[in-house]
Amino acid sequence: MADIIQLLPDNIANQIAAGEVIQRPASAVKELLENAIDADATEIKLIVTDAGKNLIQVIDNGKGMSETDARMAFERHATSKIRQIEDLFRIKTMGFRGEALASIAAVAQVEIKTRRAEDELGTFIEVENSSVLKQEACAAPIGTSISMKNLFFNVPARRNFLKSNAAEMRHIIDEFIRVAMAFPQVFFSVTSNGQQIFHLEAGNLKQRIIQILGNNYNAKMVSVNEETDYLNIYGFVGKPETAKKTRGDQYFFVNSRFIKSAYLNHAVNSAFDNMIAKDSFPSYVLFIDLDPSQLDINVHPTKQEIKFEDEKIVYAFVQAAVKHALAQFSIAPSLDFTLNAEIQSLDAVSKPFTSENKEAASSSNLYKTFTQKNQAHKIDANEKSELKDWKSFFVPPTPEGEFKNITENSGFEFEKRSINSTFNLQHSTFLQLHNTYIIASTHSGFVLLHQQLAHERILYERYSMAAHGKQMATQKSLFPVTLELAAADAALLADILPDLLEIGYQIEPFGSNTFVIQGTPADVLQGNEKHSIELLIEQFKHFSSDIKFSKREKLIRCMSRQQAIKAGQALTQKEMQRLAEELFECNTPNITVTGSPTYLEFKEDYLDKMFGR
Ligand code: ADP
Ligand code: MG
Asked: Which of 42, 60, 121, 161 has its CA 20 to 30 A from that of 341?
């Protein structure tokens, strides 16, 4: 008789392994988000359609991968995060088992596009059923974008086992929140079926908690903060009135990893002692940081369970820390814990406030600017959540409407008037600072311009005008450049050709996926046109999940951002003067379309007051 044992082919072995790691769309979401965190991304975007059954995409601006690494990443047990057995006891990353991408590639159609900062070109790889279908160099922004389509397309039993979209979506949101909560310093967004459902600006933990759990927590949290040699614990517990009838907002993170622990949960409950009803559950978001050698996170493939070296110490510590926090809260009125210690100890805060100095203080200009709404330093929590993405709500219908919208929200003073004549910039000398800022004196003080943001505004209005009737001048290319694109990019370009023409790009289709650039807008440097179109397509693609804007609006925004003078570029007197003049001829000179100020004005009388004159 012949021998009967054989090694499983890779794709089958991977598929079996995948069963442990990827149970449902939410597990893939977790793995991809964690990879982005491990890559030190500061911006992470999640896009799903049909609750992830159809598409899960994670786009990060992290460190990206080399061509070889991108290919290796899909092998089983391939990881950059551990090398030797000792590393298992000092894990600082979210991943380390090297299984996620291999598993995902075994059960979905995966595309990855990635580029490191040091590489000129990125890498595109398409994998299906654990085999690479395509690998090629491509233009790509720094970072990684992974998309996985048709999860379990080749494992029908699993696919059928998935729950309704609503249920799977809930799992996805749970996983998302667990990652987003642990990394408040990272920007996150989630788009589901074309609609943005989360937009979390980077901030501190308290802000993140409110962004996620809702503003009603704002005044109802007590901060926990204890440090010892063995471990640190920090975060917030809800005041007793936030306790819930169902186990709701309870989050434990150990070394930034969300964990489920009935044992530690018990520790928190017991600290609440008689403060809440027996059948209700306290809310908390608590982080425990300790030496990784005191932990075993490798007891479960999804790493949601861990083993502490000494569980009892951790229990006692958690209980004591929460008790301490609650005790402080019930004897002292709750402080606004976003204020740091330095601010708390300032004279202005700690000295008694008499009616005299109150009056003196509140009539000063400084006071007024400091108490204006929505200044960065004025945290008005009630409005924070509504305002958090006001920038993206803003679509300029008319210059007037746009202007109103922004000034109401941005809180800085601005009167619409003929600024060039008021400022009388013609006789100003211009001073460039750090090759980024321009100072120009005006008859009543000075203005400080940001050259890139100012130029973005100028170009935006110029392109907008062009797109609404006044076509831009085209300069014919002396040596028409051909552009060969991937099919999808070609389709995209074909789609936006008419809009491009309006802003001055004359591009003609030239057979399959090829185009000829016959002319460019008068102010685009010749010789650069190919790169600039490729960049435009790239930006446009990344922008196109943003359904709030029309195609044309997106194009204009991409173009103005792309063509603007960058910070860091030295400018001549003439160039600075032209920039300032053109800015103040804009309909809305004071902000960019995304709401950043383009310049700040410093008035003489205000300056005098600052110096007590
Ligand atoms: P693990 O995270 O356990 O190492 P994965 O299969 O999730 O295993 O990823 C394999 C490797 O691919 C990682 O170790 C990392 O080097 C690389 N990688 C995965 N995702 C990214 C990403 N978004 N950015 C940069 N590198 C990544
Ligand atoms: Mg991973």
From this structure: 42
Q: How sure is the predictor about 423, in pLDDT bands with cuts at 50, 70 and 90?
A: low
Q: What is the DSSP string of 41-60?
A: -SEEEEEEEGGGTSEEEEEE
Strand-pairing partners, residue 252, are 259, 286
Q: In terms of residue numbers, what domain contains 606?
A: 396-613
pLDDT score of 255: 93
User: Residue 543 — very low, low, confident or very high, per pLDDT cuts 50/70/90?
Assistant: low
Inter-CA distances, 151 with 27, 157, 158, Å:
11, 12, 9
Pairing of strands 437-442, 474-484: unpaired
Output the CA 521–ligand 2 centroid distance in Å.
44
Q: Does one domain contain both 452 and 489?
A: yes
**Is there a single domain that holds both residue 359 and residue 419?**
no
pTM score of the predicted model: 0.57
10 Å CB burial of residue 197 (0-12, 13-18, 19+) is middle
Can you give the pLDDT at residue 371?
35
- Ranges 13-22, 204-213, 224-233: which has the least confidence: 13-22
**Residue 202 pLDDT > 60:** yes
The domain that holds 129 is classified in CATH as: 3.30.565.10
Query: Distance between CA atoms of 140 and 124, rounded to whole angstroms?
Result: 9
To test the ligand 1 pocket, which listed residue (46, 80, 115, 145) has its Cβ within 8 A of the most ligand atoms?
A: 80
Tokens linked to 554: 């997106």
The predicted structure's pLDDT at residue 25: 96
**Average of per-residue pLDDT across 39-68:** 97
The total domain count for the chain is: 4
Confidence of residue 332 (pLDDT cuts 50, 70, 90): very low
**Res. 246 pLDDT band, cuts 50 70 90:** low
**How far is it, in rounded angstroms, from Cα 199 to Cα 141?**
21
Rounded CA-CA distance 564/457 in Å is: 9
In 3D space, the residue among 208, 33, 28, 43 whose CA is nearest the CA of residue 107 turns out to be 28
Give 60 or 272, the one with higher predicted confidence: 60
Residue 206 located in a structural domain:
no
Could you tell me how far CA 274 lies from the centroid of its own chain?
41
What region does 198 belong to: left with phi over 0, alpha with psi -120 to 50, or beta?
beta
Report the alpha-carbon distance of residue 310 to residue 313 in Å, rounded: 6
Q: Is the CB of 142 under 6 A from ligand 1?
A: no
pLDDT over 70 for what percent of the chain?
80
Q: Please tell me the distance from the alpha carbon of residue 8 to that of residue 14, in angstroms, as a whole number.
A: 9
Residues 170 and 228 in one domain: no
430: left (phi over 0), alpha (psi -120 to 50) or beta: beta
- State which of 79, 91, 112, 148 you would mutate to test the pocket of ligand 1, scoring each by most atoms of that ligand within 8 A of its C-beta: 79
Q: What is the residue type of 577?
A: Q
Residues 501-536 have pLDDT tens digits of: 888 888 998 877 789 998 888 766 666 778 888 878
Give distance in angstroms: CA of 79 to centre of ligand 1: 6
Same domain, 243 and 257: yes
Confidence grade of residue 468 (pLDDT, cut at 50, 70, 90): confident
Closest CA to 177 of 208, 221, 140, 220: 208
Mention every residue, 6+ apart, whose C-beta is less than 8 A from residue 268.
237, 250, 282, 284, 286, 318, 319, 322
